[in-house]
Structure prediction request, 240 residues.
Amino acid sequence: MEKGKLYLIPSPLGDYDPKLVMPQAVLDLLPHIHTYVVEEVRTARRYLSVAGLKGQIEGLDFHELNEHTDPRDIEAFAVLFDNGNDVGLITEAGLPAVADPGALLVALCHRIGVKVVPCVGPSSLMMALMGSGLNGQSFAFCGYLPAKTEERRGALRNIEKRSAQLHQTEIFIETPYRNDALLCDAVKILAPKTRLTIAVDITLPDETILTQSVAQWRSLLASSNQPLIGKRPCVFLILA
Prediction:
């Protein structure tokens, strides 16, 4: 039986016209896909409507795959590709399958012989690295750090140690409401000469990418009465 393809379709990093960040070739692909696996149906419907499918959304077939999906249920998605049916994978923001449960669907496709087609679009991680001035030859994405304070501080120490040993940029992210707690821990725990980048609101009007030594960050935080990040999407990078 002929199998369809899985298209990995990026989405904007904020609430704005997709045409500002999405290649036209990707937007032209969307009308030809009628089955979507998405992290959240409401967000995906809104995105596809603005991206050019307004008035066609009710005819689409949506399936959710998110942090609440039981990994044992992933196998059921295999039938979506039957009879040559193409499927689009969309995450909440940025690249699907990167720091995203959609990776489980991609893995399934490799197991069952479905071709995976990654599409071009915005990546907050790579754009933050590009704008950081840190080492772009050797870097690692560490994902989310632990939520508990002592565990998070221990993770920061280990990440800094690895960065120093390998001269490697370490990239990590946090749930927005813990951004400022993570920044305060980093400034408290890391060595004064370690360079720390915060990249906030990538591709949005208030985009800010700032790299300073930890010592400089300490001075800045000491003189500020307001949260520097707040609940805005942020990528953190360090180079020891």
In short: The chain has seven helices and ten strands. Residues 75 and 108 are 7 Å apart (CA to CA). Strands lie at 6-8, 35-38, 61-64, 87-90, 116-118, 139-144, 169-173, 195-200, 208-213, 234-239.
